Amino acid sequence: MRLEGLGLGYRYRNGPWLFRDVHLSLASGEIVGLFGPSGSGKTTLGRILAGYEHPLIGSVRVDGMLYPIRGYHPVQMVFQHPERAVNPRWRIGRILQESMLLEDSLEHHNWTATRVLDLLGIMREWLDRRPAELSGGELQRVCIARALAPSTRFLIADEMTTMLDAISQAQVWQVVLDVARARQIGVLVISHDRHLLNRVCDRVIEWPVGVGGLPVHETS
Amino acid sequence: MEFDIGLYSYRNRNGGHDEKESCANYRLGGVAMMPVLEVRQLAICFTEYTSGLQQQQIQVIEGLDLTVDRGKITAVIGASGSGKSLLAHAILGILPEHAEMSGTILYEGKPLDARKQLALRGKEIVLIPQSVEYLDPTMRAGCQVRYAAGGKRREAADKQRQAFERYHLGTHVERLYPFELSGGMARRVLNAAATVKGAAKLIIADEPTPGLPQQDVQEALQQLRAMADDGCAVLLITHDIEAALVVADQVAVFYAGMAVEVACREDFVGDGHLLRHPYTKALWRALPQNGFEPIPGVQPQPGERPIGCLFAARCAIATELCNMARPGVSSIRGGIVRCIHAT
Asked: How far apart, in Å, do the first and last CA atoms of chain B sit?
């Protein structure tokens, strides 16, 4: 499977182009980093690839299929701020249920829900709590578990571990990389931490410094 | 920036202080200068209702010792929930009402009590908050800094101009609203507001770096360094070890509300063999540039704290003895550590 961004371009209203002519391709099981300064549109590109926004020019395809996609979206995203990525009124169990992670009928993979939850260190008693009762780090683990549901094919990790301490960061990445390898999930890692990208990614894409219409250059 | 958040009362018991553990014994470098801030045997617990009228005491910080010297940057690093921010709140005297504090906080050798905190907060003891969200969104940047300066209108304006000049903020920035500031500019406005009175002696910077681009991170840290070089004592609270190591003179590592190690910046090299506590070593080795090896488990939850060493459950070198009692403080190679196996 392949997630492709073809000639993507985006801008707000009549403002300057955030980016233009961006070609990007992500294969199954491939882990690709996206490095660049903040405010340059990395997150917007991630949102476009995950189907949250529509590009003004260009298109996104998953396995040749054009967006929008019906049903469970094969491209899932994990955001930087978990407290803004969940419904504060839902209990954790329901939040995880939404991605069908906890549905028994779908547990035909090696990576069953229990295993993902255990690896990410999600306690069973959290399932009855509400998001406000968990710390930021704990909630981020929940968001990652939700994104790693059985039908996920591509994961977009937007500054996923920026707010975690070093040990939690290493723990979380170990799980995500194990799951990604075992299930051949393609991961796009958006980060400003070069050390992290060099450590986890197969190749790193440099976001151009002078934004506005430049194509994305690839380095490895 | 508004520091008069209201004065919460808490009980300050002077008990529990062990003379042997006086900070003078294990201050780094051993310079006989009075530290600006000295925290001794600080403990904070919260009283919570469990069900009905049943109350429960939850310990969040215990046995915490720390000194901050003039002209030095002391970084406090640790995972979220390790009590870093609570320490800052305790120093500023803005703990919530149901918190109970014991131990002593000495400011320039004298106990820092509620009255003193009220008098010094925002003047000699200043907080540099985390993000632009601490600025009033409906007030122009210059106006906020003038407000922080206080006093007569013209004097406040003069002070604000000087502060802006110090942080290389153009005069046009005065007229900008917080949403118009970039991340780096917002930081400089916050710094300007914190130091505008010019009397700051102790600066507490709470997570000044996350979410900023690399360039702004460096700038924010260099500004802290400059403040320290001007003679302030700086307490830098962060979970970003890399950032802390750029400027800090000494690093205190917190784990579950306890300072497990106080090390010099130079100890963080190579595979971490100069570090003393197993948690610090694990933290250092979990960085993406040094191995990226996580250790299993999580920090003990408040309310489920073991009797023995707090880190024993995740520690590779833990023995029976570790689970018996909290390890005491020992001084090794110019640093302080709370581990019976530390070498």
From this structure: 45
As a whole number of angstroms, the distance between CA B20 and CA B248 comes to 27
Quote the tokens at residue B10.
């808490």
d(CA B248, CA B91): 20
What 3-state class would DSSP assign to B171?
helix
Q: How confident is the model at residue B191 (pLDDT cuts 50, 70, 90)?
A: confident
- Express each pLDDT in B4-17 by its tens digit: 333 333 333 333 34
Whether A166 sits inside 8 A of B287 (CB atoms) is yes
Of the residues A167, A191, A206, the best mutation for testing chain B's interface (the one with the most B CB atoms within 10 Å of its CB) is A167
For chain B, where are the alpha helices, taking DSSP H only?
A: 84-92, 114-120, 141-149, 153-166, 183-195, 214-229, 241-247, 278-285
Q: pLDDT tens, A161-213?
A: 887 888 989 989 998 999 899 889 999 999 888 899 999 999 998 876 444 44
What is the SS3 assignment for chain A?
CEEEEEEEEECCCCCCCCEEEEEEEEECCCEEEEECCCCCCHHHHHHHHCCCCCCCEEEEEECCEECCCCCCCCEEEECCCHHHCCCCCCCHHHHHHHCCCCCHHHCCCCCCHHHHHHHCCCCHHHHHCCHHHCCHHHHHHHHHHHHCCCCCCEEEEECCCCCCCHHHHHHHHHHHHHHHHHHCCEEEEEECCHHHHHHHCCEEEECCCCCCCCCCEEEC
* Inter-chain residue contact A173 with B298, CB threshold 8 Å: no
pTM of the model: 0.81
List, as ranges, residues 42-101 from A with C-beta within 8 Å of B.
80
- B chain contacts of residue A196, beta-carbon cutoff 8 Å: 288
**Has the ipTM of the complex gone over 0.95?**
no
How many residues are listed for chain A in this entry? 220
- Which of B81, B182, B295 is opposite residue A167, by nearest beta carbon? B295
**Residues of chain B contacting A, Cβ within 8 Å:** 78-81, 182-183, 210-215, 239, 241, 282-284, 286-289, 292-298
Residue B74, beta-bridge partner list: B235, B250
